[in-house]
Design goal:
about 30% helix; about 300 residues
Length: about 300
């Protein structure tokens, strides 16, 4: 155990708070076509890894209260969503809510922050301002499916807004349905066109709509080393994924500038592919991603 007296205050906090990780997760889910599952969560994960990026969306969801579909990512900019939940609490969330699965990609917070990602803003809708009309959206060239606001939260921050109203649980008209997703400790990232161009995603037709998995980091000498983490449900799926990566390395390497470094990083990701099966069996509490990586390296 390190001598806490010799550490800076922030180092002491990070050492003892085992619920605070350097990584945040993007969870994959089944893809549906006409209400039927088209791709399972493991296949979706492999598709994401083959693409090398995460697609930004407006995350349109059905509203329980209004019985309508609304984008949960507000403003004119689509985003990619991440969660900072400790792994063992994330496992509890999986058991309680089928929107989660045990297949995910995790990136480092510092690298996502440098890319432009930020923790979300939990607040009620008043902070957003006044919703503009469909006609105004068309005139200003905003996406049709977006909800955009004036006279409130600035346009370039509206994507960070997440609805929050814990008082609703006491409102009899809402049948105890509170609006509270703070357990997700959510982050969001907008596609950064400049960085995407700098790392070689400029040849991709989705350049302005994606966030790379293999984010730039300070030491460019190690850019072919994985700074991302892949999570799957079982050790069997981990073994299957390692074989799949080996089989698809050549195809990914040939896709362009960004993919040459990314393909090597993916090939070297062995100890940074974690299974929830092993995490569940671990005696570690709360579950920082980096602790499980270290445990894999020590085996």
């Amino acid at each position: 155990m390190k001598d806490l007296s010799k550490l800076k205050h922030w180092e002491r906090i990070k050492l003892v708070r085992t619920d605070i990780s350097e990584y945040i997760l993007h969870c994959t889910r089944e893809r549906y076509v006409n209400n039927n599952p088209n791709l399972g969560a493991f296949d979706v994960l492999k598709k994401i890894l083959e693409d090398g990026f995460l697609r930004a969306t407006f995350a349109v969801k059905d509203s329980w209260l209004s019985r309508t579909s609304k984008p949960t990512v507000r403003g004119p900019f689509a985003a990619v969503c991440f969660t900072e939940q400790p792994l063992q609490f994330f496992i509890q969330s999986i058991g309680a809510n089928r929107r989660y699965t045990e297949f995910a990609v995790a990136v480092r917070k510092d690298e996502l922050f440098n890319y432009g990602g930020r923790p979300v803003i939990y607040s009620d809708e008043k902070i957003l301002g006044k919703q503009i009309t469909s006609e105004e959206k068309i005139e200003l060239g905003y996406p049709v499916k977006s909800l955009v606001y004036n006279d409130g939260l600035p346009l370039d921050l509206q994507y960070l807004w997440v609805g929050y109203d814990p008082t609703a649980i006491w409102d009899s008209n809402r049948q105890g349905y509170a609006i509270d997703w703070t357990h997700e400790r959510e982050w969001r990232a907008r596609p950064n066109k400049t960085i995407n161009n700098d790392i070689g995603l400029s040849s991709n037709s989705h350049q302005e709509k994606v966030v790379p998995i293999h984010l730039p980091h300070q030491d460019q000498q190690t850019f072919q080393q994985p700074h991302f983490v892949i999570l799957v449900d079982t050790e069997t799926h981990k073994e299957d994924l390692i074989v799949w990566i080996q089989e698809n390395f050549g195809k990914m390497y040939k896709k362009g500038e960004y993919y040459r470094d990314y393909a090597f990083a993916l090939l070297r990701a062995g100890n940074q592919i974690l299974s929830f099966e092993k995490i569940r069996a671990s005696k570690q509490t709360l579950g920082r991603v980096e602790d499980f990586i270290q445990a894999e390296e020590n085996n």
